[in-house]
Design brief:
Helix 3 packs across helix 4, helix 7 packs across helix 10 and helix 11 packs antiparallel against helix 12. This protein has about 260 residues and is an all-alpha fold.
């Protein structure tokens, strides 16, 4: 696979100081999604060129890259979201939006709180937006809940296995390590590790045509993509209970705040 040039104007250096400041704030408040984007900007250096090169090397990737569909716009269209038949990935995504209260444009707004090149008219920036905008689709495909620390951390680990980027690795590892002290056992950490393993085993989801995938039956899509049932995750959910499974927002949950979201 050919190596593409770096993003114009970037130094290629990782900003560990910013990343460590952001991870401390994120672990103190799992609802502070802005810190996730700070970490990604600081550590995922060179990630977009690598993944963009991988995309255009696939059979359908050239067409997908040429069309440059802005998925957040499609996912924010109520008529589009309402168009999917029962049992499909799209129907499951619609239910996800209804039950969590999340939205594609909401995630875009949070990401823009951190200055970055993601809004530039550039193929790498488009691919970065594509990864951001499909995060909740990945929640649906993997079965990891979005409104708990455990589900987000497991999906972060899955994402690291899929698209690389030390930002994903830092968030997942830090959440898993802190869980050992907070929960008093390794169930949370094992679920995160399982997320990474499942991500390694699955097909490369970022190469999918999402507008087609959304019409596919959910179970068939999971089977075709090789997305395994997250056994350790489901076990940890049962054993830890809702409070420890969402330990990053445990104190805030008592205050009656809304659902957390530690990954973008």
């Amino acid at each position: 696979m050919a190596k593409l040039p770096p993003f114009p104007g970037t130094t290629g250096r990782r900003d560990w100081r910013t990343a460590m400041d952001a991870i401390r704030k994120l672990l103190a408040n799992g609802d502070d999604t802005t810190q996730v984007f700070r970490i990604m900007r600081a550590l995922n250096v060179g990630n977009a060129p690598m993944n963009y090169a991988r995309l255009i090397a696939t059979e359908r990737g050239g067409r997908i890259a040429y069309e440059q569909v802005e998925l957040a716009r499609r996912f924010s269209d109520p008529a589009f979201v309402a168009s999917f038949g029962p049992g499909t990935v799209g129907a499951a995504y619609r239910l996800f939006l209804e039950t969590t209260g999340y939205s594609a444009d909401g995630l875009v707004e949070v990401s823009r709180l951190v200055p970055s090149e993601d809004d530039l008219a550039h193929p790498y920036a488009w691919f970065g937006r594509r990864v951001r905008d499909t995060h909740d689709i990945w929640h649906v495909l993997t079965g990891y809940k979005a409104d708990e620390s455990l589900g987000e951390a497991a999906l972060v680990a899955f994402s690291y296995a899929q698209v690389g980027g030390l930002g994903w690795a830092l968030i997942g590892s830090a959440a898993a390590l802190k869980s050992l002290r907070v929960t008093g056992n390794g169930l949370f950490a094992k679920a995160v590790w399982e997320g990474y393993r499942n991500g390694r085993k699955a097909h490369w989801i970022s190469g999918e045509d999402y507008l087609t995938l959304l019409h596919e039956p959910l179970d068939a899509a999971r089977a075709r993509l090789g997305i395994a049932t997250p056994v350790a995750y489901l076990h940890a959910q049962r054993e830890l209970g809702p409070v420890l499974a969402s330990y990053l927002s445990a104190q805030k949950a008592g205050a009656g705040t809304g659902p957390e979201r530690i990954a973008a």
